[in-house]
Amino acid sequence: DEARFGLPLDLERFMIVATADFNMGAMENKGLNIFNTKYVLANSATATDTDFANIESVVGHEYFHNWTGNRVTCRDWFQLSLKEGLTVFRDQEFSMDLCAEPSARAVKRIEDVRVLRTAQFPEDAGPMAHPVRPDSYAEINNFYTVTVYEKGAEVVRMMQTLVGRDGFASGMKLYFERHDGQAVTCDDFAQSVADANPHSDLARLLPQFKRWYSQAGTPRLRAEGVYDAAARSYTLTLSQSCAPTPGQADKEPFVIPVSLGLLSADGVQLPLQLAHWTQPEMGSRTLVLTQPSESFTFVNLDSEPVPSLLRGFSAPVVLDCHYTDAQLLTLLAFDTDSFNRWEAAQRLALRRALMAILSDDPVPAAPLDAAYLGAMRDVLRHPTLDAAFKELVLTLPSETYISEQLGEVDPQRVHAVREAMRQQLAQALQADWAWAFDAHKDNGAYRPDPVSTGRRALAGMALTMLCLDARTSGDAVWPGRAYQRFKDAGNMTDRFNALSALVVSDHTLARDALARFHSMFQNEDLVLDKWFALQAGAPDRGGNVLPAVRQLMKHTDFHLKNPNRARSVIFSYCSANPGAFHRTDAAGYLYWSERVIELDAFNPQVAARLARALDRWKKLAEPYRSAAREAIARVAAKPDLSNDVREVVTRALAD
């Protein structure tokens, strides 16, 4: 980061204090940062690869705040994304810059986009929707959100896309020359980047671009392509729209950078030449959409191309494009943009999930077709693809993301369909999973580098799939191997992956493994958090998770007043386990209301975060919708609620 932006720490030492009882990840106080122990303490015996990556990211984030947050800070709370969105962008770029291979960079990008889609897009579509720069607030703690942080980072990323990597570095340099030691606004930052690049699209479109700061909601980008064989041309029409959000009924067009490429039907990258260009370009090209609808005509094409749109996820939008299965399979197999290869797999899986969910028939035992399964087998067996990338491609869209694509959601049907898809994927590729595990399970001395991390992730996924297959086949070999790996593992990642495989498959060995794990790590608070979270987040089978959660809260090692421990059980159940939380008997909602009220008495910030679990209650089908509303009203009726929680539940009940 110092080499890229020239912003070294201006202190002799980077000093931190770590505490086990902290609501947040960390705080960038100048000279002495405060950290949650979760984002500092790690060794290979107690921390997973994910922990190491999170620590790198959070330590980097707070360190980078020395400049983007401390030396230049916010004029007022409305400008919170000035420091947070920019610093998230810096820590994302830092993690990507550490990756030697393009595929490893793509893995980081995919992980960040998954957070955006499963957390920020629903926020944009819910009662707590707000612009990156909020207009008002009842409690500022409620605006430390994924919109301010992650969407704010995407706005900064679009600036870099519009001015180029070198141009963005020049913009950062000018920003600090102008504003070092000052308290400024989001506008000041955008102006600096534009002024450093006076001939860029950002400078030309700056007033319109800043709508990303003032307008809430996720734009929808519609793409339609028409091929004219006689003219050897392909006309791509891009259209944008944005749904109303609380307090903002009408939206003006955004500036949307759309990076794209064109492939032939057999996967060859085609040269890009717009009608008014004299020479074609190879690779990607970024079109800039500024109107409600614009058309772009590419020429000298001998056959209808397959468009690879929004490469690298060049804008935080929902892309509507009516790809055929054949086109998606082409992108998955041949696209040079790794993000869009992953995206093609997600679209193929999502299409099959929605077909099964929206059918009037019972949930099919085999919702996946031979073409999809064959494509997944090809990815798994691919000789050169990065292991971490394979693991991401083979991971099905989450229940939360699937639900966001539906107008009305039956959470139990969504859960049943996704579980059926995962079970079929486990059974159909059983021999391939066995190969993948054996080929990736041995990685020598522990190193948290991208290659080793990816190999462990794929081996862990393979082991889970093999245990899931054993659940229906009755095979005792793979659960036995998982239990042995759990006992013999030389690092926490392999040990926890093996434990997860047994818990997720609900094998009888899971109980003994959980007891052994607790005995091994009963004095390691951060490891016990994982133990609690694994059980609270386990797949629901016949309503078994909620009773387990209530029992976990009676455990001698459960402490409600410790934020990490509270999150490990309550949030893992209410916010991260929709199939278990949304019950037809409404018992999950009753549990949620009890915990919100209980937490609010001594920790309003954590309580308000938990209250957000029912933000999207209006999308639920009956009987869930009425029961969820009743639970929210039960919380709202409490007379002595904090401002933090009252703002959330009041906005949820509006209209």
Brief synopsis:
The protein is of the alpha/beta class. It has 29 helices and 13 strands. The protein has a four-stranded mixed sheet with strand order 11-7-6-13, with no helix packed on it. Strands 8, 9, 10 and 12 form a four-stranded antiparallel sheet that branches.
**Structural class of the helix and strand makeup?**
alpha/beta
Query: What is the overall silhouette?
Result: globular
> How would you sum up the major sheet?
4 strands, mixed
Q: What's the overall average pLDDT, rounded?
A: 96
Compute the separation of the termini in Å.
Answer: 47 Å
Question: Count the helices. How many?
Answer: 29
Radius of gyration: 25 Å
Low-confidence stretches: none
Q: Taking strands numbered 1, 2, ... along the chain, how are they ordered across the largest sheet?
A: 11-7-6-13
Residue fraction in strands: 5-15%
In helices, the fraction of residues equals 40-55%
| Beta strands, count | 13
How would you characterize this protein structure?
This protein is an alpha/beta fold and 655 residues long. Helix content is 53%, strand content 9%. The protein has 29 helices and 13 strands. The strands form 4 sheets. A 4-stranded mixed sheet has the order 11-7-6-13, with no helix packed on it. Helix 6 (165-179) packs across helix 7 (186-195), helix 11 runs antiparallel to helix 12 and helix 18 runs parallel beside helix 20. The radius of gyration is 25 Å and the shape is globular. It starts with a helix and ends with a helix. The model has no long low-confidence stretch (mean pLDDT 96).
